[in-house]
């Protein structure tokens, strides 16, 4: 069994729905197709929930009707036969009605989850009707029948495996379609795996069925060695290890949801990143047999804030760091990078919602300094095994760039450092030249 997940852009228009169907048809063997909502739809649904929460039901209604019209237009163009279009109208009416009832009721967080689930429910329905229209057999499965999370929001992998296994055994088909992102929570209410969660769904489904491979189809050809938005000559990396992919996904490589790697990695299922708009390009294979490479790729993460706590009470004292960490724990703010000296500790956060209370609570520990507008540059590769010369190779080219923090040795696959965001583009370009000699050779 293969799992093929298509993101929002891949199902963002009639033309793209057709491309996805073509890819699904051309992929041999049994497969489960996991779809996101059409691009932009989840954002619109979030807007709708915001408006409903603020009691602005008139404005919410306008967005709901706009969305319904967009779906009807897509369905009319996508589906040739009147029969398929009629079925689509019935489905769309049901979803429209679900949203409309929200405008006249007291709005709460349970309803918010129901609203957010509509995007994936509609895209999968439309896709299934399209396959039916082009006479391709398929079965639409509701993720709400098997995708389940516990009271901490963690997936119940055993339950997912059992339920999905049972459901699949009821059908004879080589194409199953289901929704990414949505699930049921411990109270059996509709819930979700958080924004961007469809990759996670695909990985959980892959793990549940013991898939041969999980394919994540997006709009770029795999993970690049550097950020193509800021660096001209990047290339798609043909393979990488799970550990490298996890570092890159967390530190800014937008192509993959960081959490999504875990179920695939734990079950040793290769993940192939592919481009819906260039289906023939090789993409990036993430697996545990990736060849060892000193420097695999670079990614950058913006909107980083550094907090320095300077205190002579830290000198030779134990328990100091514990107390500092407790402040972050109390305010549910995760720390990305950390460096220490005998008299100071610097750490970074990307969620500044609680920054004021955090700094206030930290005052008792010493002098606090806060720096904003910083970026973490993450270099992933098999860095530990090749320690000799690695750091000088990285920093040699950055002589003129002020570096605020360096984190090295935390994992074998990552070296990260912190720079001002205004230096980020220059740093990414300098590293591209110094760390990827194959690029220089290709340009010679
Ligand atoms: N539709 C959801 C979102 O936009 C989930 C996903 O596409 O991964 O966050």
Report a brief summary of the structure.
The protein is an alpha/beta fold. It is 41% helix and 20% strand.
Ranges with pLDDT <50 over ≥5 residues?
none
Strand content: 15-25%
Number of helices: 14
SSE pattern, N- to C-terminal:
EHEHHHHEHEEEHEEHHEEEHEEHEHEEHH
Biggest sheet: strand arrangement: 3-4-2-1-7-9-10-8
* Mean pLDDT figure: 94
CATH superfamily of the largest domain: Acetylglutamate kinase-like
Give the proportion of residues in helices: 40-55%
How many β-strand stretches?
16
Hetero compounds: aspartic acid
Global outline:
globular
Instruction: State the domain count.
Output: 2
Class inferred from helices and paired strands? alpha/beta
Q: Distance between the terminal alpha carbons, to the nearest Å?
A: 44 Å
